[in-house]
Amino acid sequence: MLNSKRLWTTTILLGLAFDLFFWEKTPGISFPIFVALILLSGILVLADSNIRPNKRALLLIIPIGFFATMTFLRVEPMTTFLNYLLTFVFLAFFALSYTGGRWFSFTLSDYVAGFFKLAGSTLASPLSFINETRKEKKESDIEKKSRNLFPILRGVLIALPIVAIFASLLSSADVIFAQRLDDFIKLFKLENLPEYIFRGILILIIAYFLLGILLHAARKSENKKLVGEEKRLLSPFLGFTESSIVLGSVLVLFISFVVIQFQYFFGGNANIHIEGYTYAEYARRGFSELVTVAFFSLLLFLSLSAITRREKKSQQKIFSISGIALVALVLVMLLSAFYRLKLYESAYGFSRLRIYPHIFMIWLGILLIAIVILEILRKERAFALAMTLAFVGFAVTLNLLNVDAYIVKQNIIITEKNNVDLDYAYLADLSDDAVPALADALDDESVTPETQNLVALSLTCHWYQNESRSNGSDPIPWQSFHLSHAIASQTYMHIEPQLDGYTANDDEWYWQITAPDGTVYDCGDRFTWD
Predict the structure, then answer these.
(1) What Rg value do the Cα atoms of the chain yield, rounded?
(2) Which of 23, 88, 152, 167 has its CA 20 to 30 A from that of 94?
């Protein structure tokens, strides 16, 4: 039997914690702390009712903890978005499989159905729980509490206007009393009463939703039956002949493309000049289309695997071999796309929009290989797990790589190698994650003075576009403390003497920096990063 009093107390306290951590505050260290509070308090309050998490469900605390913690370490936009997203997704997985622990056996249908059920429980379960607890209480207890509570409420409501009238009269009679009364009223900041009401309602809403999630974890997470486990959700209806023609036709097309265009795939600079393409046209014309082909090839193979009848072992073997051939050809295409983008980067440098697909292609290739292996082993239920792990791998790679710092390091290397100007304005527009890498380049003796000057300009632009906004404002609350921001601030303090000769001027549109030699530079983008 669930302890309603402790459940409500726990969720309301979590609602208060949400208000303390996030109201008018930028998330920082507060987010991983709040996630830890949700996990710890939820496990403890359910354990009080002898409802304990499955050991396999507890494994989900690892990715939850990792991604929640990384929100405190990284501020690069895509990395941060994925960290928040995956934290909430794995929290949902934890609630969905709390007692059953079968999250690793979920299919895509289980994910979709599970999220809808969790959303329904979040909205409806608290209401039904309130009705249950009311019915279990004796009428005498309810009447006794009503007799004690309602007279107090009536007395307060009657007393308030009377006291207000007398206080107004006494204030008119004595100036000092009026001042003291005014000071007393200001303590409560009644002018912010609408805000207090809104925050109170928000706290109750958060508590309500968290109660619904806890109730789902306690009552509906056993997962004895998963979608399609006993009977397939979608029975195979396409004949093997039809499927073979579809898959075979695609294979013939891919083979023709790879054979005819093999030299074009890896022709490099010579091929660009022959075709008359610019670097940008060469990379874009090949890269985007090839990645799209790879993605839809995966969807095609998954679809055919789900709907194709394979009644004989020979049919299964032919289908698996066709899948291996399809994946092999797609991997060649992905390698070509990877090479095209690398060629573009070697000429024009790195950007976020070039790094994301680079990493995505690697994990897409791994996913393709995993899918075809699972198909051979007839482990179709594991397709969703493979996709989840590939997506997690993509997000983990972004975190460990530190995208903005990597961009700085690689672009400085390319600048020195190709003897071109560093796009300092683009680097200045990166997040605080890039600041330590820029500072390292400023102290690197192997970097030319010309590039170091542009690095100094980038750091100065970054400072005035970010750090200077907080100068003279209220101190950052502890809830918003972020490690990346703190490291950047410490780095600026360390290199401040090296930036002493660079002065800034705000022309109301963007910052301009005057270098020690008197040259004026704009902090706006000078290049197009497509």
Answers:
(1) 31
(2) 23
The rounded distance, in Å, linking the Cα atoms of 27 and 15 is: 16
At 281 the pLDDT is 58
Exposed e or buried b per residue across 435-456, where buried means at least 16 C-beta atoms within 10 angstroms of its C-beta: bbbbbbbbeeeebeeebbbbbb
Number of Cβ within a 10 Å radius of residue 296: 12
Sign of the C-alpha dihedral computed for residues 255, 258, 260 and 262 taken in this order: negative
The per-residue DSSP string of 307-346 comes to: HB---SHHHHHHHHHHHHHHHHHHHHHHHHHHHHHHHHHH
Model pLDDT for residues 292-309, shown as the tens digit of each residue:
888 888 888 888 887 888
Q: What is the pLDDT of residues 206-253, one digit of tens each?
A: 999 999 999 999 988 887 777 655 566 567 778 888 888 988 898 998
What tokens does 328 get? Answer: 């092999």
Cβ(49)–Cβ(2) below 8 Å: yes
Name the average pLDDT for the chain: 83
Q: Which two tokens stand for residue 517?
A: 């030699």
> How many beta carbons lie within 10 A of that of residue 125, not counting itself?
21
Alpha helices in 107-192 (DSSP H): 108-136, 139-173, 175-187
For 503, the 3-state DSSP assignment is strand
The Cα 382–Cα 388 span in angstroms is 10
Alpha-helical segments (H) within 23-51? 30-47
What percent of the chain lies above the pLDDT cut of 90? Answer: 33
Residue entry with tokens 């009463």:
193
Q: What is the pLDDT of residues 51-79, one digit of tens each?
A: 999 999 999 999 999 999 999 999 999 99
For the chain, the 3-state helix, strand and coil shares in percent, each to the nearest 5, are 75, 0, 20
15-52 pLDDT, tens digit each: 999 999 999 899 999 999 999 999 999 999 999 889 99
Residue 141 has pLDDT above 90, yes or no: no
308: which strand partners? Answer: 238
Helical (H) or strand (E) element with 506: strand 503-506
Report the C-alpha gap between 171 and 193 in whole angstroms.
Answer: 22
Q: Taking a C-beta distance cutoff of 8 angstroms, is the pair 68, 39 a contact?
A: no
